Amino acid sequence: MKEYDSFLYDKYLFYYYNILVLNYAKTDKEKALDYLNKASKSEVIKKLPSYNAFIYLNRSLIYYYQNNFIESQKNIARLIMQEDFLLLDKSFQLKILLSDLMIRMLVSNKNLNDKITNIKKEYKSLLLEKHHIREKKMIDLIFKKINDGDVVDNKEDLLSSMSDSDSEDLDIISYNMWIKENIK
Predict the structure, then answer these.
(1) H helices within the chain, ranges in order?
(2) Is the dihedral of CA 87, 92, 98, 102 positive or negative?
(3) 137: burial class by Cβ within 10 Å (0-12, 13-18, 19+)?
(4) What are the distances in angstroms from CA 168 to CA 123, 162, 164, 171?
(5) Which of 21, 60, 89, 102 is the most buried (most CB within 10 A)?
């Protein structure tokens, strides 16, 4: 990137940080956070429309996997409040909001019913689509759990609908792993 007087430096800087963050998120979370902080200070990256989504979502996920759920929740909440959030694809927005519910449930059940109601209202048409059935089922499971409902059938239904490895690939936070760890 530094060759030819850094001619392509600005063009590829975001991808460079993205690769570093994704790789270190698996092996060295502190180093991944360090690169996220460096990326967040770069004027080149700040100009990109997806900058806030990249920074806040990755920070949230790293904190989540460090079991620092309060910091994870703060970062995903910041992402949702950004104007850039509305520029994201509606399906991706839904997955982020569902991840927010999952993290919030680990911190506190406060205001979750209101958040669920809002998601069901704002994303009603998406939740009716076949390829978003898992998101709908996951929202229903969380709703039942926070309202002390019986979640056994919901839990088994969701866990049997997709393999653990596919869930890890497709979900922001694997629904299967989250259910196994947090829904007793």
Answers:
(1) 3-6, 9-27, 29-41, 43-46, 51-65, 69-81, 90-107, 112-122, 124-127, 133-146, 152-161, 164-170, 175-182
(2) negative
(3) middle
(4) 23, 10, 6, 6
(5) 60
Q: Taken in order 145, 147, 148, 150, is the CA torsion positive or negative?
A: negative
Q: What pLDDT score does 4 carry?
A: 46
CA angle 49–73–24, rounded 5-degree value: 65
Average pLDDT, the chain: 90
Which amino acid is it at 85?
F
User: Quick one: CA torsion of 105, 111, 117, 118, rounded to 10 degrees?
Assistant: -100
Three-class SS state of 123: coil
- In the numeric block, the tokens 């709703």 are attached to 143
| pLDDT bracket for residue 9 (50, 70, 90) | low
* Cβ–Cβ under 8 Å, residues 58 and 50: no
Contacts of residue 18, Cβ cutoff 8 Å, sequence gap at least 6: 54
25 C-beta neighbours (distance < 10 Å), count:
18
Which one-letter amino acid corresponds to residue 10? D
The amino acid sitting at 126 is L
